[in-house]
Amino acid sequence: MSVRGNRKPYPRFNNVYDVLALFYKMIEEHPKPSIVEFTKLLRAIFRMKRYATVVSLCRQMELSGVSHNDYSFNILINCFCRLDRIDSGFSVLGKMLKLGVKPDVVTFSTLIRGLCNQSKIFEAVSLFDELFEKGYQPDLIVYTTVLDGVCKTGNTDGY
């Protein structure tokens, strides 16, 4: 399977070891493939629910000089949230801002969902409110995420 020049999506991998083999092949190439190619592999591993593996691969990418984009950062944040490491997800958000990568609705809805999953409804609603203050226009997904979190707790008084 060619890594270079292959703009078609990778086939759906059924085996994490096949994805890892391709990842390690790509990480050794000079020059390295683009972040878009790495992100395809991260997405495949994420779909296999191997969140800790994605986190580890992201660290290896950074150490080998592969820069993240907004999509790969969002995958990483999602993995941290799924691993109940929401603080690490917010650290990635800080890194995005420091590097000038603009977070999007997916970034914020992922973090809000992570807060709701940890029953941190007040923090989720505060982040939601902060979106408006900073000029973001949350979409239906963000509204649904916040409402779902509030409804699951059954606590509408003070969140």
TrEMBL record:
<keyword id="KW-0677">Repeat</keyword>
<dbReference type="InterPro" id="IPR002885">
    <property type="entry name" value="PPR_rpt"/>
</dbReference>
<dbReference type="Pfam" id="PF13041">
    <property type="entry name" value="PPR_2"/>
</dbReference>
<comment type="similarity">
    <text>Belongs to the PPR family. P subfamily.</text>
</comment>
<feature type="repeat" description="PPR">
    <location>
        <begin position="69"/>
        <end position="103"/>
    </location>
</feature>
<feature type="repeat" description="PPR">
    <location>
        <begin position="104"/>
        <end position="138"/>
    </location>
</feature>
<protein>
    <submittedName>
        <fullName>Uncharacterized protein</fullName>
    </submittedName>
</protein>
<dbReference type="InterPro" id="IPR011990">
    <property type="entry name" value="TPR-like_helical_dom_sf"/>
</dbReference>
